[in-house]
Amino acid sequence: MHIHNYEKIWLVLAMIMIVGFLTTVTYGATAVGIEMISDEEDTIDPGALDEDPRFAEPRVEQVGENEYEAYVVAQQYIFSPDPIEVPANSTVTFYVTSPDVIHGFQVAGTNANTMVIPGEVAKLTVETEEPGEHGIVCNEYCGSGHHVMEGKLIIHPEDEFEMEDDE
Amino acid sequence: MSGDAVVTEIDHDEFNPRGTLALILVYFAILVVMWVFMYFVEFLGNDLTVIG
Amino acid sequence: MSSAIESGEPTFLDRFPQEAKVVRSALWSSFIALTLGALFGIIQTLHRTDVLRVFSSGNYYTILTAHGVLMVVSFTIFFLVGIYTWAVVRSLDRPVEDIRYTWTWYGLMVLGTLMALVAILGGFIDSIDISADVLFTFYAPLQAHPLFYGGLAIFLIGTWLAGADWFRSWYAWKQENPGERIPLQTFMVLITMLMWYIASIGITIAVVIFLLPWSLGIIDQVNPLLTRTLFWFWGHPVVYFWLMPAYLLWYTVLPKVSGGRLFSDPLARVVFVLFLLLSTPVGIHHQYLDPGIADGFKFIALTNTMFLLLPSLLTAFTVVASMEHGARQRGGTGLLGWLRALPWANPAFTGMALAGLMFAAGGFSGMINAGLNINYLVHNTLWVPGHFHLTVGTAVALTFMAATYWLWPQLTNKPIFSRPIALAQVILWFVGMALMSNAMHVAGLIGIPRRTAEPQYDGFDFIPTFGSIAELDLQLVVGGTLLTLSAILFVSNLVLSISLPKVSGLGQPLPPALSGPDDAPKVLDNLKLWTAIALVLVILAYTLPLASIVDRGGLFGPGGTPYPTMIEFGSTLLEIYTPLTTDWISGWLQ
Predict the structure, then answer these.
(1) Which positions of C are annotated as active-site residues?
(2) What residue stretch is flagged as signal peptide (chain C) (predicted)?
(3) What DSSP string describes A85-113?
(4) Residue C89, Cα to own-chain centre: how many angstroms?
(5) I want to staple C145 with a disulfide (CB 3.0 to 4.6 A). Which of A137, C119, C173, C551 is the partner?
(6) Residues in chain C closer than 8 A to B19 (CB atoms)
C-alpha cells in the first residue's frame, strides 16, 4: 500500500490538529477549571419534588460568605423561582431538576447551560461578574408550550443584594 | 457527460497533487485559527464562567 | 476511455431492468419525502422568524417532527437503499439473488414510514387521539402513539433485510470469485451495514423493550436518561449512515465526473473501516451536558470523537486529489489554475463539489460541538441545526441530488429534462444553505435556542454582537426560500424527465482507481476482524455508562410524567402482560 508523500504530510497534520484540540479542551478542564455536568448528585423521585428539602420550595440560599445555591425546578412551562436573584462577583451553584419531561436550562447567551432530566439533578456552578439581567430559556423541546418557557436571572450589585430571609 | 474531455492520461506515479496539498494547507490554517478564536474568545470570553 | 466507446455502453437499466426498478422506486420514495420535508421546512422558517404563521405554535412541533423524520430518516435512508442496491449490483456485476426478497424489504420500509407518518400527521387533528409530537429524537417522557414506534421498528427491520440482501449477493459472488478483492463499492456497502447493525442494538432496545410497551400502557414508566442514551447509541452512527452513501459517491462517482480517477482505493477502504470502528462509541458526545453521566465517560466520548475526524480529513484529501487528477487530465495547469479546468457546467460535478465545500465548513462547526467543555457555549442553540444543515442538509443532500443527475439517465434511459435548471438548482441549494446556516450559527452564539416555535421572549431580548436580529431573520427567510425553490426545481426536473423519449447510449462506466485494490493490504477486507474490534470498542465505551445509568435510576424509572397524556388503550393488556414482561426482562438481565 503506497501512500503519496503529500497524503502522509496531511495525515501527520491531521493528527497534530486532533491532539491540539484535545489539548485545548484539557487545558480548559484543568487550568481554567471548567468542569462538566456530571453524576455527583443522587437521583431524585420526580413525582415527589414537593417533599424534597431542596425543591419543595425552589429558592436561592446563601451557603457561604460569597457562595449561593439556587434550587431550580424546570417544569412545563415555567422555571421556579423566577426571577433567580444573586449578587455580582459571587459563586452560584444551580441545582436543576424536572418533575415532568426533559427540559433545558440556559442563561441565554452565556455558558451556563445544562440539560434537565426528570429523576436527575443537574449541578452547575458559575461565577457571576457584572450586575445585570439575563433571560433564561428552556432549550430542549418540552411540549406544545415550550416556546413560552422562560425565566430571568438578575445579578444585583453586591452592596444592593439582600436575601429575602433577612428582610 | 464529462469524462469525455480528457486531453492527457496521467497515472498514479506521475501525479503529484500539488494543488490539493495547497488547498488542504489553507483549510488546515483556517481550522486552527477558527478553533483558537472560538475556544479562547467566544467560549472562554463569554459571560458566566462555569467552574463546576 | 474515449467518448465513442462510452456512449456505446449499455446502461444499468439495460443490464439489470428489475434492479433498476427497485432503485427507481427507492429514489422516488426518497424524493417524495424530500418534497414534503421541504414544505415543512419553509413553514418552520416563516413561523420562527414571525413572517407568516399559518399554524398555531403548538402545531409547529408537529411540523418540526415531520420535517426531521422525513428528511433524516425517509429522504436519506430511502436514497441509501436505492444507491446501495445500484452499487452492489453494479460492482459485483450480478443481479440480486431474489428480486421478491428485495421488494419485500422495500415494502417494509414504505409500510414503516407510512405508519410513523400517520402518527405524526395525526398531531394536526385534535379530534383524534393520535400524535407523535416528539421530534426526531423522541426523548421520553415525551410520548408518541404506538404507531410511531411500531413504524420506526418496521422501517428498521426493512433496512436490516436490505443489508442481508447485499451480503447475500456478496456471498454468492465470493463463491464464484474465490480470492478476489471485494469490489470497492460493495466493500463500502458491507462496511456501512455492519456499522448499522451494531448501531441498531441501541435503538432496538430503546424502542422494543421500553418505548413501545410504554406507549401501549404495558409498562408505566421508563428511565428517561436510559432511553435517551440508547437513542444516541444509534443516533450518532446514523449520522454516518447518512454520510457513507455520500462518501461512496465522492469516492467512486465524483472522480469520474471530474474527468479523472480515484486517487487511492486502499485509503478509501481504510476510511470506511475507521467509520465502522469509531462511529458508535461516540454517542455520548450528544450528552455532554446531561446530568447522571460521569464526566470521565464524556471525556472518553470526546477522545473517540476527535479521532473520528481522521477518516473525514483523509477523505478531503483523497477526493480533492481525485478532482485535481481529473482537472489535470483535462488540461488544467498551475498550482490552483486547474480548478478552472473542472467541469463546472455539469450539475452532477458542481453539486458534489459544492457539497464537499460545505462539508469542510460543517466539519468545523462539528469540531466545536464535539469539544466537550466548549459545548456549554453552543449546546441546544440554533448553532446545532446550523451545523447539521451543512452536513446532512448539504454535504449529504446536495451530493444525493447531484449524483441523481448522473445516475438517473442510467436508470431510465432518458436524459434529465433540463441541465441548465439542474445546474441552477444545485447552486441555489448552496447559496440558500450558506445564508440560512450562517444565520443559524451566528444566532446560536448569542443564545437563540433551537427547536422552538417562537424564539422571541417576553422578558428579554437577544443581543447580537454585530448586525441585528432582523438581519439574521432575513438571512433565514431568504435562505429557506431559496432552498425550497431548489427542492421544487429538483423534483420537477425529474418529473418532467418522465415525458422524454427513451434513448440509448447513456451508460457511464466507472474507471478504476489510480492506486487499485491490489495495493491494499488483504487484512482490510477481513470483515469479521473489523466487526469484532468495533464491538469491543462499543462494549468498552458503553458498558459502564449504561450500567451506571441503570444502577442510578433503575431500569424503568424514575420516570417523569408521560406527555401528552393519551387514552390508555393498552390498559386492558396491562393486567395481562405487566407481570409477564417485567419477569421476563428482569430474568433476562440476570
Answers:
(1) 236, 240, 387-389, 450-451
(2) none
(3) EEETT-EEEEEEE-SSS-EEEEETTSS-E
(4) 22
(5) C119
(6) 324, 327, 334-336, 338-339
First to last CA, chain A: 78
Over residues C514-559, the pLDDT tens digits come to 988 888 899 999 999 999 999 999 999 999 999 999 999 999 987 7
CA distance B7 to chain C (A): 5
Write out the residue range of the structural domain in which residue B41 sits. Answer: 16-45
Question: Is B3 a domain residue?
Answer: no
Instruction: Give the rounded percent of residues in chain C with a pLDDT score beyond 90.
Output: 89
CA–CA dist C398, C425 (Å, integer): 10
Q: Do C316 and B24 touch (CB under 8 A)?
A: yes
ipTM confidence score: 0.96
Query: What integer pLDDT is reported at residue C576 of this predicted model?
Result: 46
CA distance C285 to C302: 6
Number of domains forming the structure of chain B? 1
User: Which of C6, C252, C325, C462 would you mutate first to test chain B, the one with the most B CBs within 10 A?
Assistant: C325
* Cβ within 8 Å, pair C325-B23: no
The answer to whether C413 and A102 have CB atoms below 8 angstroms apart is no
- Please give the grid coordinates belonging to residue C451: 427547536
**Can you tell me which residue has the cell 455558558?**
A111
CA distance C31 to C478: 23
Radius of gyration of chain B (CA): 21
Q: What is the pLDDT of residues A26-84, one digit of tens each?
A: 999 999 999 999 999 999 999 999 999 999 999 999 999 999 999 999 999 999 999 99
Question: If you classify domain A46-166 with CATH, what class do you get?
Answer: mainly beta
Domains of chain C: 18-589 (1.20.210.10)
* Pairing outcome for strands A59-64 and A103-107: unpaired
